[in-house]
Amino acid sequence: MNADIAPMIVPAEFPELGALAWNRDPVRSIPAGEAFALFERNWRFVDQKRLSTREKLLIQTLADKFGHGILLTTV
Q: pTM of the prediction?
């Protein structure tokens, strides 16, 4: 995947990412690398059945950019 990704991501725009960012203001942008790290560290808390197509694309794009195409678990 060669999709460009915004350098900053608003967790509130992605339900599962927003849930992972429970201890911060979810409407405040975070760096894309930090969003990837949140998914990686907390994947066990992600409800994969609730992932929208848009959020799956975000995760895959983040994995491509920051994880050499690999996430702890495939989406």
A: 0.85
